[in-house]
Amino acid sequence: MSSHALSGEASATLIAALYPDCMAATRAAQLLASQVSLADWQLSVIHPGDPFVINKAEPERRGIWHTVLRSHGWLGLAGFAIGLLGGGVMVRMDWFGAGGTPGTVLATLSAFAAMAGLMLAGLISLRPDHGYVLARLHQALESGQWAVIARPANALQKRAALAALDSSGGRVLRSL
């Protein structure tokens, strides 16, 4: 489980390195495994035509749903609270006559701010940073390249995996 309050995934980062053939990808995976302590689910080699690409690149299906629920819960509540706070300030200061209809001001601002929080949570849940990596990965696999996928669980693993894959000669793609 992630230590980040909005994520339910053990690994929020996706790192892919692209190689021209099986031999180069296998060497890179061996180098990565020898330099970085990764669990089996955190390291994958993907070949062109592999039917399990998405399962290897995004192995945490349950974690993604936890991310959806956590981010929407926390950011929806945070938006609601910020809206109440902002509405309270407006009512207290009687900004543009807000003191005359305090209930309406508080309800409207808290609802709009909660919706903004929920929309931000939706963006976080969609993981556009993963989408970029996955799109490039699919293009490379279609052109006959091989890929090594690393799913580091912390900053130390992320730095070590990036260093190992950079030194292996592959084209490295990564999410946030």
UniProtKB/TrEMBL annotation:
- Name the domain of life this protein comes from: Bacteria
User: In its UniProt entry, what is this protein called?
Assistant: DUF423 domain-containing protein
Q: What keyword terms does UniProt attach to this protein?
A: Membrane, Transmembrane, Transmembrane helix
Transmembrane ranges? Answer: 74-93, 105-126
Write down the species: Uliginosibacterium paludis
